Amino acid sequence: MRLSQLTLQDYRSYAQAQLALEPGPNVLLGFNGVGKTNIAEAVGYLSSLSSHRVTNDAPLVRHGAEQAIIRAQAHRGTQAAFLEVEINPGRSNRARINRGSPVRATEILGILRTVLFAPEDLELIKGSPQVRRRLLDTLAVQLQPALGRVRQDYEKVLRQRNALLKSIRHEGFTSTHESTLAVWDMQLADTGARLLRARLQVLSALRPHVSAAYHELSQSVRTARVRYLSSLDGTLSEDEEPQTASAAAEDLSPLELADTAQLSEQLHAALQQTRKRERERAITLVGPHRDDVLLSLDTTPVKGYASHGETWSFALALRLAAYRVMIEDDPSDGAQPILILDDVFAELDARRRRRLAELAAGEGSDSAPGQLIITAAVDDDVPQQLLANAYRVESQDQLSTVTPFGASVQEQA
Ligand SMILES: Nc1ncnc2c1ncn2[C@@H]1O[C@H](COP(=O)(O)OP(=O)(O)OP(=O)(O)O)[C@@H](O)[C@H]1O
Hints:
single chain; alpha/beta; Rossmann fold; 6-stranded antiparallel beta sheet; 10 helices; about 40% helix; about 20% strand; globular; disordered C terminus; binds adenosine-5'-triphosphate
């Protein structure tokens, strides 16, 4: 998988920018805040329709502009596709594939696969459950593009159900409310079960890779473990507090053995059980939007206990595992995901830096290395073997420009 051209229009700090990308490493160099991560983020957005930094689209559009556009020429082996995504905050995003008619943005999912490493990855360990849910969802959507729609549908049903619970609290529970709630319960159980099933599949595919990658990165004898936490299997309380004693004893959640129909039934039953408390609190208390992933080293949770180095190793292991799951899913030549390393080398100690550089250079792997997009403030931060094709990113009058390193003519924004 690779991009040969990337064009940004009104994306973050860029009025207009164009880059010709090479198949191997591509390094974006420039001072802090000049717009390197903005480019890395745009490539990630093309593959997942989400940013690793923000949960809504508004900040992606340049101040004062109405929409942002990302265009790219993508290649997978001998196949090529011209991709375009229009980001319209507050309205539906649109996509065009091979300059065809505009379609729903979700149609673009699955065409480009990326794995992005960033300093924000520490939040996978230290942050809220939402960050860990996003890790699973982003990977699940890249593996099963149809899930992009399911996720949107689930969020829509959830919003509508929560709005209904609020009306019930204000107006009292009428028979109309009862029949409408019954419809939302069915839809929430149906879409929620499909989302949950996909997450559980992704988690079970990640599990062996996380523990192997953690060993490789840390050379620790401790085992990195992942377990899905859900109020449906009793590992998460209604207040989203993990019941860690039961969670740490076993990695496999019984939910992983259930099919979509069984999960839907369980979710529907749980909604009925919590209905009284949901009406009191006017919020949906069970479902994949409340779930979490417990990360532990042996039987000790990582969050709150692990050292800084262990936290970094675990975060890198999760991303590396995602990369390997994608390769396992499609091992054909030229299908490796694009690896995006956003400002990570400066954060790592010498050993983890070396290991990540080896991986990025394709060492120890049967397949040729895929395309790499690396950002760094200075070239000293980037391992020598990756410093092939470099760009200079600069900022003038709050607009960013990007030019091949050493080019005499600057592209004007
Ligand atoms: N929507 C937007 N409109 C205009 N400018 C924006 C927008 N969003 C972000 N910026 C600007 O983009 C710049 C940040 O760019 P970016 O995060 O890519 O920096 P960077 O080069 O990766 O920096 P660092 O090395 O510190 O990580 C900031 O100057 C910020 O003000």
